[in-house]
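Entry 14. Ran structure prediction on the chain below.
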Amino acid sequence: MIDSELADVALQRVSLLAFPYYPEIHVDEPEYSLNEDLDFCMEPLAELEEEDRKDVRQLFGRAIIDPSVYREEVFMRLTELTEPGTAEQ
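Output, structure tokens:
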């Protein structure tokens, strides 16, 4: 389980990186690395168990590439992993 503030930070990072992403980015910017972006997004979630980390990382990748399809799923998954009682009132 993670603190809701950490989940919010991770979600903000995914949003920040999804905005400039486009399918041809690897051609226009050969140094671009989705894995580096995912590492950045996952930093606040270091306390997650390995299985959850893998699941969330994969979901974050999908959300960066196609946020309109995966944003709700990312939000719901992070909500599931958030410690009860840490959400803002």
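The chain has a mean pLDDT of 93. Will compare against last week's run tomorrow.
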